[in-house]
Amino acid sequence: MTALISHKGWTWGFRSTILLYFFVLIVLPICGVYVQSFSAGWNVFAESLSDPIAWKAVLLTLKLGLTAAMINVVIGTMVAWVLIKYRFPGRTFLNSLVDLPFALPTAVGGLMILLLLGPGSWIGTAAEAAGLQIVFHQPAIVIAMVFVTFPFVIRAVQPLLEELEVSQEEAAYTMGASKARTFFQVILPSMLPGIISGGMLAFSRALAEFGAVVLVAGNIPGRTLVASVFIYGEVESDNPVGAAAVSVVLLTLSFTVLWLMNRVQQRGRRA
Amino acid sequence: MRRLWIGLTYAVFLILLIAPLSKIITSAFSGGLAGLGRALGRPEAMHALMMTGAIVVIVTLLNTLFGIMMALYLVRATWLGGKIKSLLNSIVDLPYAVSPVIGGLMIVLLLGPDSIIGGFLEGTGFRVVYAFPGMIIATLFVTFPLMVREVMPVLQEIGNDQEQAASTLGAYSWLTFRKVTWPMIRWAVVYGMVLTIARSLGEFGAVLVVSGNIMNRTQTATTLVYQDVENFNVAAASGVALVLAVFSAGLLLIMEWIKKRKEVH
What is the per-residue pLDDT across B11-47, written as a single tens digit (0 to 9) for each? Predict the structure, then answer.
């Protein structure tokens, strides 16, 4: 039995199985999309992208994703700061609630927003009376993206704030710095790596978001059709080459953001 | 000042998380308990929940096993060069950056009826895309990094002194793993499993593209929610969504509990 288990063949079999699983599951599909979108030549690829519906969808996604990331940078930094620095009733509860958007299926998140702001709800009715259109328009897409990417900035900033020693803050006060000055010269710089990497993660996740967005966006080409929903539509209408072309653009963007984020983190570690 | 910041934080949580959550509860119960029962008692709803359950079980088992092994190799393997290891290490994260819809599209392109592999498999009577296997593969793809990323830091932190000691004393690798490595990574594995369950429970985009969302055949709970909303059957959608939300909230509680255990450890 011992001889059987410690046999060399097992080790090799194991190693190749794991690596094969990894390559077939992760590497092969990603290469497949790139190959497929260029399979019919560069011209077909450019043609798929020059379709106004396609490039407008990509631009819209970028714009709304950036907006959502910015909103999250602001409220995420604030929430992280409050949750670490202050002790108040309900703090632990709120702190565990932060992860809810990660745990919740995105389709459920989309449905929640639809129920809360949609036609028939009192917020939706009130907004409509005021001439604001939320659901099935761009604001709803931003809200869905903010909801889904809510935890990123908070979870990136919190550990940095925990590490920041109170003595540094106190030193700044003692030397006569005002509260605002302490914040901008001591606290903010130490949060910055977290804010940047969290914001970038939120941005790349917002670009990729589908479930929550498809339910609340009207999906009108050129106005409320984001890239991921466009790709879904192309797959449904049996045009995988068009879908692959937009996918390649979106993937390359996300990979670049991810790569930049790693660079930022490595810099932060070295400093 | 302090009051203002705490108040603002509460407002953010209330508007962004608590209000939507309570809205789904009231909407699911808008037809009373009987209405909720009707929404969940539909044959397609039962089938969709069963599908989701099956996917969660299979995906969690597979990715736990392969995720632990992958993490072990990425941290410990001496037979992989350092360059290759860091390349593999960065590839592990790619599914995070890939939109779920694109993840689904990849599988359709690679294994769909029009592809070489898919065409061949179709010939032997084995359907992958628009069937159960494809949905499993899509979910496996999306959830792959979770376990690896939970286990790897723990392995890095504990170092391999104890493992080396064990093997010097003559324990072969399986025994070393079971007696030395496993007790130390146990809680990370459990945490990774909970994350994997949560993610595969809620996977929507990739599964929607791969499954074709055929009622009573390849429909999961999340794609049923989508279809109900598209059919303007919001009450029924809320019923199924409530079940999913309750599960996710439960998983969130377990996650909190494990985090505390890990700290004590």
Answer: 999 988 999 888 889 888 888 888 888 888 899 999 9
**Within the 203-262 window of chain B, which residues sit less than 8 Å (CB to CB) from chain A?**
203-205, 208-209, 221-223, 225-226, 229, 234, 237-238, 241, 244-245, 248-249, 251-253, 255-256
Judge if A51 and A33 occupy the same domain: no
Q: Do A255 and A146 fall into the same domain?
A: yes
Shared domain check, A232 and A116: yes
Query: What pLDDT, in 10s, does the model give residues B226-260?
Result: 999 988 888 889 999 999 999 999 999 998 888 88
Chain B: residue whose CA lies nearest to A259:
B90
Same domain for A134 and A159, yes or no, is: yes
CATH for the stretch B41-264: 1.10.3720.10
Domain ranges of chain B: 1-30, 41-264
Q: With an 8 Å Cβ cutoff, are A115 and B27 in contact?
A: yes
DSSP track, B175-216: HHIIIIIHHHHHHHHHHHHHHHHHHHHH--HHHHHHH---TT
Distance set, CA B210 to CA A217, A247, B34, B52, B227 (Å): 22, 16, 34, 14, 15
Contact criterion met (CB < 8 Å) for B110 and A146: no
Q: Could you tell me if A150 and A98 are in contact, meaning their C-beta atoms sit under 8 angstroms apart?
A: yes
If you measure CA to CA, which chain B residue comes closest to A92? B256
CB of B11 within 8 Å of a chain A CB? The answer is no
Q: Tell me, what's the ipTM?
A: 0.87
